[in-house]
Amino acid sequence: MIQIVNLEKAFGDNHVLRGVSASVDKGEVVVLIGASGSGKSTLLRCVNLLEVPDAGEIWIDGVEVTAKGVVKHEVRRETGMVFQQFNLFPHKRVIDNITLAPKKVRGMSAEAAEELAMELLRKVDLADKARSWPHQLSGGQQQRVAIARALAMQPKVMLFDEVTSALDPGMTGEVLNVMKELAADGMTMIVVTHEMAFAREAGDKIIFMHDGVIVEEGPPSQLLVNPQHEATKEFLSKVL
Amino acid sequence: MVLVNFALDFNKLLAQAKELLDVIAAKIQNIINFSLIYSSFPKLLDGAKVSLLISLCSVILGVSLGIIVATGRLSKFWPTKAISSAYVAFIRGTPMIVQIFIIHYGLAEFGVTLPAFASGIIALSLNSGAYMGEVFRGGIQSIDPGQTQAGLSLGLTPFQVFRYIVFPQAFRRVIPSMGNEMVTLTKDSSLVNFIAIAELTYRATLIASRTYEYFTMYIGIAIVYFAITFALSQLLALLERRMGPYDSDSKPGKGLRR
Ligand SMILES: Nc1ncnc2c1ncn2[C@@H]1O[C@H](COP(=O)(O)OP(=O)(O)O)[C@@H](O)[C@H]1O
Ligand SMILES: [Mg+2]
Fold first, then answer.
1. Which of A88, A141, A176, A233 to pair with B170, CA 20 to 30 A apart?
2. pTM: predicted TM-score of the whole model, two decimal places
3. B225: which DSSP letter?
């Protein structure tokens, strides 16, 4: 479903991605791990073209999104993303945060968009907060709204970039549970996280990145239990 | 005893104060010719209307231009950036009266002869556009880039992100400084009296030079300008309360109604 081929990206002299190749099957949950600065976010952001890679290809559902002439915002409709800092729109109520893109991008009617939004809010267990303002919600609640907002575009893949890192410890569970449910529903997901328990439980495949390359990948049972490379072992010894 | 003494002193003091006030009032009546104000009231009212109309048109055009200039300066496309930056630098670096003269008298040499009223509005709008542009640029830049990224990640076009996400937040944030610029512009509108637009200052000058009642006339219109800018400030404060920045630190219940 997603193929990443020899991806390269530099910021000035800083070569952040140095030939990254990976693939994600439909319905698969891929967990991306690695030390801070290893290029995980950059890789994720390349998939929805928030960053434009310098070289290499990305294919989503048989379409090369890195090809010339591809319209970026059309690619991004199909790739939902959730950020560490939630990034809810503070000037819009919860429900309007969710309906904005379906209305403006998909051309959905206000009624249809609101119906969809309410369904998604029920799914993340926040139906009673539809009329609230983002700042009235806790971090965990805001992040669940952000997930609902991304889902409202009915994307083919969901990208999660350390979505629990900014949360108080007590709130990570509610967000991870929503993600687990989503995984169980068959959503294709790429998840950057330091939550190894989540990786073990929900991940189909774990990719370990180090200094802009993929050092090792495999199912959790293999990579977490029996890592092959020194860098992987060292990283895991710190986070496990 | 002490109390009685004090009461007497106090009465004396009051009497003295009243005397002083009477003297001042008499002086003011000497300096300010109230009957002149009364008789020139219709003319001044007309002038105030012109001033208001010019200010209103220029504020609307200035704000619109300011938004365009701000996006121009923030654009990644260098010609747009260069043109808007040069424009802002020119306006900020030259006297407003000179700008007014360039538009009204200078352009006439190239066959562009505008009615004074139009020249005045154009010059004020161009001037205000540059300052408003800086206000909006600051506002737009103050919005967290995460907002743009979230918008883009949903598949909105860059224009939609600006229109629905960045700009509405920036606008709320700049209401106070935008208000300052509006007040400044309203006061500066008096400068167009130099190209013979029959606005408030122009009419006051005419009457004053005929009657030699300079103090009366200029104090009179100063009060009128103050009343206008004061009302404008109150209006903007109201707008700010209605739709102030909606950040986490704003109190619940206070804030915008859609
Ligand atoms: N927009 C950017 N401009 C310049 N450097 C960047 C930018 N984004 C990321 N980097 C750099 O790229 C490197 C990798 O960053 P990132 O992909 O965020 O790593 P990770 O998510 O694994 O912590 C870091 O050195 C970071 O400073
Ligand atoms: Mg990161």
1. A141
2. 0.85
3. H
The domain ranges of chain B are 40-243
Residues of chain B with pLDDT under 70: 1-4, 244-258
- Name the maximum alpha-carbon separation found in chain A: 55
**The CATH number, out of the four listed (1.20.140.10, 1.20.1270.220, 3.30.70.1170, 1.10.3720.10), of the domain defined by the range B40-243:** 1.10.3720.10
Distance from CA of B35 to the nearest CA of A (A): 54
Residue nearest to atom 5 of ligand 1 (CA): A11
Ligand 2 centroid distance, CA of A157 (Å): 19
Q: Contact, A154 vs A116, CB < 8 A?
A: no
Q: Which atom of ligand 1 is nearest to the CA of A162?
A: 21
Task: Give A78's contacts in chain B (Cβ within 8 Å).
Answer: 155
Rounded-to-integer distance, Cα B125 and Cα A109, Å: 39
Q: What is the pLDDT of residues B177-233, one digit of tens each?
A: 999 999 999 999 999 999 989 999 999 999 989 988 888 889 889 999 999 999 999
Q: In terms of Cα–Cα distance, which of A154, A151, A3 is closest to A66?
A: A3
Cβ–Cβ below 8 Å for B153 and A91: no
| Nearest CA residue ID for atom 4, ligand 1 | A11
| B59 Cα to chain A: minimum distance (Å) | 25
Q: For ligand 2, a single-atom ion, which residues have Cβ within 5 Å?
A: A 41
Nearest to B169 among A91, A133, A136 (CB): A91
The arrangement of strands across the sheet holding A79-82 comes to A79-82, A157-161, A188-192, A29-34, A205-210, A213-218
Alpha carbon distance, N-terminus to C-terminus of chain A = 30
Q: What is the ipTM of this complex?
A: 0.93
Closest to A52 (Cα-Cα) out of A29, A68, A35:
A68
Q: Which atom of ligand 1 is nearest to the CA of A40?
A: 22
Structure tokens, B175:
């209401």
CA distance A60 to chain B (A): 15
Span A129-178, pLDDT tens digits:
999 999 999 999 999 999 999 999 999 999 999 999 999 888 999 999 99
Is the CB of residue A165 below 6 angstroms from any atom belonging to ligand 1? no
Interchain proximity B149–A50, CB inside 8 Å: yes
